[in-house]
Design a protein that fits this description.
Strand order of the largest sheet: 3-2-4-1-5-6-7
Largest sheet: 7 strands, parallel
Oligomer: single chain
Family: Belongs to the GPN-loop GTPase family.
GO molecular function: GTP binding; GTPase activity
Keywords: GTP-binding, Hydrolase, Nucleotide-binding
Strand content: 5-15%
Protein name: GTPase
CATH architecture: 3-Layer(aba) Sandwich
Shape: globular
Structural class: alpha/beta
Organism: Thermogymnomonas acidicola
Length: about 260
């Protein structure tokens, strides 16, 4: 594969919908793309997966074999992916000249916080991986909502230590002023600190100040990418980052064509 993007983030942020929108956008631009469903427990995905882990690992079979409920079976199924990685690599072998987008499980802990997940990412991507951390635009309109998602981003980054995009999805649900404020908070730690203190007043003031300082000093946060899976806003920005990282930006000139 040219390169891969593992899409992760909290439940409900629209990860699968974003994967489907990215696939549609890539195809419209005549770029070769494949989308892989890595959620063995998903009942529906809003796209046609090119590789589907559900064809390899059946959640009902896991529940029956291990005498588990749905939650326990999800955990076991996530761990079984590493045991079945050779089979998944076989399916992926036909996409050597493609960008591959991996739609990870809806519950972030099933992907980010399992022991074998970093190894799974390396094996499936052949060492050519980026991550996209998807956040919720509506939640991000409050300072505490933004900070909590940034902290979770930092936690995921520490697990994989790979290039990560900070995606704010569902921007079509908020106004331009709200989006501008989110960008200001993201890029200006002092503005974020002041807004957070105003929201929380004196509660946990020292703790929150320390958190913001740590996030700022970490160097993990370069920029925010606002997107909408509904109207495709920001999707070419995601592609631009992938092209730049995997191919040195060889194709980024196509981003500005008029056709």
């Amino acid at each position: 594969m040219i390169g891969s993007l593992f899409v992760t983030g909290p439940a409900g942020t629209g990860k699968s919908t974003l994967c489907g929108a990215l696939k549609e956008w890539f195809i419209k631009q005549e770029y070769d793309v494949a989308v892989v469903n890595l959620d063995p427990g998903s009942e529906f995905v809003p796209y046609e997966p090119d590789v589907d882990v559900r064809e390899i690992i059946s959640l009902p079979d896991v529940m029956s074999e291990f005498n588990l409920g749905p939650n326990g079976a999800q955990i076991v199924a996530s761990d079984l992916m590493l045991e079945n990685v050779d089979k998944m690599q076989e399916y992926l072998s036909e996409f050597n000249d493609y960008y591959v987008i991996f739609d990870t499980p809806g519950q972030i802990e099933l992907f980010a916080f399992r022991q074998g997940s970093p190894m799974l990412v390396d094996k499936l991507s052949g060492g050519r991986a980026m991550l996209a951390f998807v956040t919720d635009a509506v939640l991000s309109t409050s300072p505490s909502g933004l900070v909590s998602q940034m902290m979770l981003y930092g936690s995921v980054f520490s697990r994989f230590y790979k290039p990560m995009l900070y995606i704010v999805n569902k921007t079509d649900l908020i106004g331009e002023d709200d989006l501008d404020e989110i960008k200001t908070w993201f890029n200006d730690s002092e503005e974020l600190r002041n807004a957070l203190f105003e929201e929380r007043q004196e509660m946990l003031k020292d703790y929150l100040s320390g958190v913001i300082t740590a996030l700022q000093d970490s160097g993990m946060f370069s920029e925010i990418i606002p997107v909408s899976s509904r109207d495709f806003t920001g999707l070419e920005d995601i592609y631009s980052k992938m092209s730049l990282f995997f191919e040195g930006g060889a194709d980024t000139d196509t981003l500005y064509r008029d056709d």
